[in-house]
């Protein structure tokens, strides 16, 4: 594992070659905006979800008449990426198909993660290339954990997520096996605002699979905030460990867990995209530190 640093006068980021994972996003004064991965609570910081998002029913999926085992959120987060390019403001890392990945995901892929900093904005682009001869099913998800509260002296209970548009549609929850429950629940978003409280997460993540917004902000009413944009990702998870953690995960997804009772093949899993042979799909997220 190696750490790559990219920086500007406004923000800096360390990225690990293990999982191409963001390790520490800091402001220009060195204050950390990102969870530190305390293993006593949760060792993740910003795991990358690929080639699936969420849990599989029974931990297995079917493709072309065969069955494969694959852990929740896939294998990218535990894989070592190669460094393609790295300079003061950007870094690109790559995970390519190998014998180990083919054993659980029988496709010829290349997954590139490109990080770039411009002023106070961090841009992240995940490019999935299909180097095989047939269409390839895939999902992708970002899972960054931000400090809750942010390091600007405002109370934890004053933090909220504010969406670009009103979000009246119901949300989803996970069952005890980590599968998507069939029934929906009323959204806790009031207008455009999700006021953050530990009680929201007593039954795991909030899952918004009918989201209108592709932009939101996170922070307190006063002080700097994070503006997050995810034009290519239609779903969103929000999660923390209630009463135990100083983080909030804001997770744009292309894909979700298998629904309870799901028995289709991988191509029928909700949120899966089919990438044609010789084609790449790019999924982007930007994180901007905005002054209060």
Concise account of the structure shown:
This protein is an all-beta fold and 292 residues long. It is 1% helix and 39% strand. The chain has a single domain (3-290), classed as Beta-galactosidase, Chain A, domain 5 (Distorted Sandwich), CATH 2.70.98.
Descriptive overview:
- By secondary structure, the chain is mostly beta strands.
- The chain has one domain (3-290): Beta-galactosidase, Chain A, domain 5 (Distorted Sandwich), CATH 2.70.98.
- Helices cover 1% and strands 39% of the residues.
- It is built from 1 helix and 21 strands.
- It has one helix at 99-102; strands at 3-7, 11-16, 22-27, 60-63, 66-69, 82-86, 90-96, 109-118, 121-130, 136-138, 140-141, 145-147, 159-163, 193-195, 206-208, 215-220, 225-229, 235-239, 247-254, 273-275, 280-290.
- It has a 9-stranded antiparallel β-sheet, with no helix packed on it.
- β2 (11-16) and β3 form a beta hairpin.
- The longest helix has 4 residues, at 99-102.
- It is globular.
């Amino acid at each position: 594992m190696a750490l790559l640093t990219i920086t500007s006068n406004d923000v800096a980021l360390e990225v690990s070659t293990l999982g191409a994972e963001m390790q520490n996003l800091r402001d220009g004064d060195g204050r950390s905006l990102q969870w530190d991965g305390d293993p006593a609570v949760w060792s993740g910081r910003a795991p990358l979800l690929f080639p699936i998002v969420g849990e599989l029913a029974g931990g297995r999926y079917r493709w072309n008449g065969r069955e494969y085992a694959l852990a929740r959120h896939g294998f990218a987060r535990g894989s070592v990426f190669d460094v393609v390019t790295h300079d003061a403001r950007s870094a690109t890392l790559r995970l390519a198909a190998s014998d180990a990945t083919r054993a659980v995901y029988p496709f010829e892929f290349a997954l590139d993660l490109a990080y770039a900093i411009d002023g106070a904005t961090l841009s992240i682009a995940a490019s999935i290339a299909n180097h095989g001869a047939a269409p390839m099913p895939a999902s992708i998800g970002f899972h960054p954990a931000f400090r809750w509260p942010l390091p600007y002296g405002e109370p934890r209970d004053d933090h909220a997520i504010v969406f670009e548009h009103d979000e009246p549609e119901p949300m989803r929850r996970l069952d005890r096996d980590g599968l998507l429950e069939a029934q929906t629940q009323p959204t806790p978003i009031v207008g455009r605002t999700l006021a953050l409280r530990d009680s929201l997460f007593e039954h795991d993540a909030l899952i918004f699979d009918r989201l209108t917004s592709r932009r939101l902000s996170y922070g307190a009413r006063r002080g700097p905030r994070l503006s997050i944009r995810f034009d290519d990702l239609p779903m969103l998870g929000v999660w923390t460990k209630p009463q135990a953690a100083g983080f909030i995960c804001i997770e744009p997804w292309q894909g979700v867990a298998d629904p309870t009772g799901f028995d289709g093949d991988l191509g029928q899993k909700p949120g899966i995209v089919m990438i044609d042979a010789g084609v790449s799909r790019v999924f982007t997220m930007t994180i901007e530190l905005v002054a209060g």
